[in-house]
């Protein structure tokens, strides 16, 4: 039974040519604002073995009962295209746009991405002074404080927030809450 010539079947989720690189994609999905839609959309990702790195959902047009889902995920380009195509076929989905590859009117492919984080840092003495100095450099606002802690609010690209958190960690990060990525394509055209 231990024959090296017989290979076990590979999982369909991980069949990707080795030459293809994994890329990060920011997808904007316009959907009906009704119960169960988010679960169906997210089920498309989990059903194919893809992790969602960031998820932001909010109603955008109250009168039309529309919501916008912004998802950041990683995968091989051809599989992301298949995922987009399958999302387009779900009945409550009106439109799927890959903001990462959509060049818009200006010809610039990078979407405008922002995220909000609230970070609690405990510390005294020099650590407290250093936390305030770093917050100033990163343009983070102090939204709560006591003698033993600060709560900072910071917005920006996810990489900026990652860097801020990594620099604050040795100073005494207690708790972090991040909203997930909100993104728009550049140029005058909308979704």
Automatic annotation (TrEMBL):
> InterPro entries this protein is in?
Acetalactate_synth_ssu, Acetolactate_synth/TF_NikR_C, Acetolactate_synth_ssu_C, ACT-like_dom_sf, ACT_dom, AHAS_ACT, AHAS_small-like_ACT
Q: Give one GO term, molecular function aspect.
A: acetolactate synthase activity
Pathway named in the protein's UniProt entry: Amino-acid biosynthesis; L-valine biosynthesis; L-valine from pyruvate: step 1/4; Amino-acid biosynthesis; L-isoleucine biosynthesis; L-isoleucine from 2-oxobutanoate: step 1/4
Boundaries of every ACT domain copy: 26-101
**Keyword terms:** Amino-acid biosynthesis, Branched-chain amino acid biosynthesis, Transferase
Cite the EC number: 2.2.1.6
Q: Name one Pfam family in it.
A: ACT_AHAS_ss
Q: Which reaction does it catalyse?
A: 2 pyruvate + H(+) = (2S)-2-acetolactate + CO2
Signal sequence span per UniProt?
Answer: none
Gene3D superfamilies for this protein: 3.30.70.260, ACT-like. Chain A, domain 2
The membrane-spanning stretches of this chain are none
Protein family per UniProt: Belongs to the acetolactate synthase small subunit family.
Tell me the function of this protein: Catalyzes the conversion of 2 pyruvate molecules into acetolactate in the first common step of the biosynthetic pathway of the branched-amino acids such as leucine, isoleucine, and valine.
> How the protein assembles, per its UniProt entry?
Dimer of large and small chains.
Q: Which PANTHER family match?
A: ACETOLACTATE SYNTHASE SMALL SUBUNIT (PTHR30239), ACETOLACTATE SYNTHASE SMALL SUBUNIT 1, CHLOROPLASTIC (PTHR30239:SF0)
Q: What is this protein called?
A: Acetolactate synthase small subunit
């Amino acid at each position: 039974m231990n024959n090296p010539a017989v290979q076990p079947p590979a999982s369909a989720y991980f069949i990707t040519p080795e030459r293809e690189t994994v890329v990060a994609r920011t997808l904007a999905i316009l959907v009906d604002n009704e119960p169960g839609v988010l679960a169906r959309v997210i089920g498309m990702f989990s059903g194919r073995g893809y992790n969602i790195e960031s998820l932001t959902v909010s109603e955008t047009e109250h009168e039309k009962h529309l919501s916008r889902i912004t998802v950041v995920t990683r995968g091989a380009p051809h599989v992301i295209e298949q995922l987009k195509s399958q999302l387009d076929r779900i009945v409550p989905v009106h439109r799927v746009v890959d903001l990462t590859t959509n060049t818009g009117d200006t010809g610039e492919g990078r979407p405008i991405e922002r995220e909000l984080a609230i970070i609690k840092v405990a510390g005294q003495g020099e650590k407290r002074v250093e936390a305030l100095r770093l917050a100033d450099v990163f343009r983070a606002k102090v939204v709560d404080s006591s003698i033993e802690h600060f709560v900072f609010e910071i917005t920006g690209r996810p990489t900026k927030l990652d860097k801020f958190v990594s620099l604050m960690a040795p100073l005494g990060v207690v708790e972090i809450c991040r909203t997930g990525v909100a993104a728009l394509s550049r140029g005058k055209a909308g979704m």
